[in-house]
Amino acid sequence: MWNAELIGALTSLFTVFIWLLYLNLFWNEHKRYNRPFMVIHHATAQDPNASCIFVNMSKEPVHIQCVIAYLNGSHEYVKHYLTGYSRFNPHGQRNHPQLREGPIMPGGYVVLGTFEDIILGRDVGLEENQEDEKTSLQRYLNAEKISKMETLEICVAVIHGQTVNPIGARRTFFIERKNSEIYIRSYSIHTEQMTNRAKRKIVRQWLETRLEPKLRGKEQTEQTAQDQEKYSKE
User: How many angstroms from the chain centroid is the CA of residue 31?
Assistant: First the structure.
């Protein structure tokens, strides 16, 4: 028969194992619950007039720092920085129309414009009643320009909650023409979350290209020096 000391040791070991299992489950649930999650999608339809929307599904607010659209065609490559978008809080109220960038609350969203606006590089978010060319010829020319593009990649760089280093989200759409109709469809049902270390480097490159800061190429903390004179001597 097993002696009392062996039984006690096995019981203690089993108890430790159970506590470690619960701790692991708790930690995984905590990470899942607090993990930033963002969605980029097209609303209501798959034609160029459909709206492109960025949604903050995270528990914490996210602060938008830049939105980029990359377009690839058979003979053309284009990059647009989107700024004229409209932001809405979870209660459906639009934020100040002149405040283009800023925090998106949990459940809030941003209307980046229609896919036609994004592809053509039209910054129309601030003035919803902007005049646009409505002639048949102009609509035809717009459709021709859109149909020459093959893919559209939308990238959003944000600061999440109280973290320092930026994270992001991106999603790629493909453009096709069938029976004189243009369709814009996503490659995947998922929005890519740019949150791990390797992908954060890509997001940082987006921002460095956009903002052209003096300090480049490394992760930062709250203690990162901001002394302009120091960097001006390098």
Answer: 19
- Residues forming beta bridges with residue 170, ordered by sequence position: 155, 192
Model confidence, pTM = 0.75
Three-state secondary structure readout of 177-227:
EECCEEEEEECCCCCEEECCHHHHHHHHHHHHHHHCCCCCCCCCCCCCCCC
Question: Could you tell me if 53 and 43 are in contact, meaning their C-beta atoms sit under 8 angstroms apart?
Answer: yes
Coil, strand or helix at 231: helix
At 90-134, the pLDDT tens digits run 655 554 444 455 688 898 988 888 898 888 887 655 444 444 555
Buried b (16+ CB within 10 A) or exposed e, 63-96: ebbbbbbebebeeeeeebebebbbbbbeeeeebe
Q: Where are the alpha helices (DSSP H) in the chain?
A: 4-34, 115-120, 136-147, 197-211, 228-232
Rounded CA-CA distance 101/66 in Å is: 8
Q: Are 95 and 102 in contact (CB under 8 A)?
A: yes
| Span 53-78, pLDDT tens digits | 999 999 889 999 999 999 998 788 88
CA atoms of 151 and 154, how far apart (whole Å): 10
Whether 51 contacts 114, CB under 8 Å? yes
